[in-house]
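Input structure tokens:
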């Protein structure tokens, strides 16, 4: 199965979740640049826009997040972890219906460090994505969910969807 099919299965559940919390949800699917930088959705809360990036996996077999460092390593295209300027990352595991909402600025500070501080992402080896069929040469780092929950505290939330 490819990533697009997995994500398409999740979209209705994610939209239902988002619509309970915000005034409006707009998709960025018509603008590739906006989607790459801002995320899949723009949500409006108290009249202000927020970018929402969505990552979906079929299953949470290993209790890890896959944090993409290279979108296409062969062509030196950085992954979403570097490029993303969204406010929130939603990471959804389809089979378990578990959703994590993560504040992107906090995730990036944890990953890359602040000031002269070394980031934590470098503790984990880069691995080529092999779960899904795709044309690009994607690489990332598998980070235990429990470690991020401990490190990020209130900046990561767990949600069980119906």
């Amino acid at each position: 199965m490819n990533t697009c099919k997995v994500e398409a299965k999740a979209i209705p559940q994610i939209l239902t979740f988002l619509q309970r919390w915000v005034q409006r949800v707009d998709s960025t699917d018509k603008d590739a640049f906006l989607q790459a930088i801002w995320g899949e959705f723009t949500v409006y809360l108290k009249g202000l826009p927020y970018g929402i990036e969505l990552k979906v996996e079929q299953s949470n077999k290993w209790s890890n997040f896959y944090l993409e460092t290279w979108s296409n390593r062969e062509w030196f295209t950085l992954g979403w972890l570097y490029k993303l300027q969204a406010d929130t990352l939603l990471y959804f595991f389809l089979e378990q219906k578990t959703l994590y909402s993560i504040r992107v600025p906090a995730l990036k500070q944890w990953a890359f460090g602040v000031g002269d501080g070394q980031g934590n992402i470098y503790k984990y080896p880069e691995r080529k994505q092999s779960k899904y069929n795709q044309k690009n040469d994607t690489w990332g780092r598998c980070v235990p969910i429990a470690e991020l929950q401990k490190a990020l505290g209130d900046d990561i939330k767990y949600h069980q969807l119906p």
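The helical segments are 3-19, 32-38, 80-83, 104-112, 145-152. The chain has five helices and ten strands.
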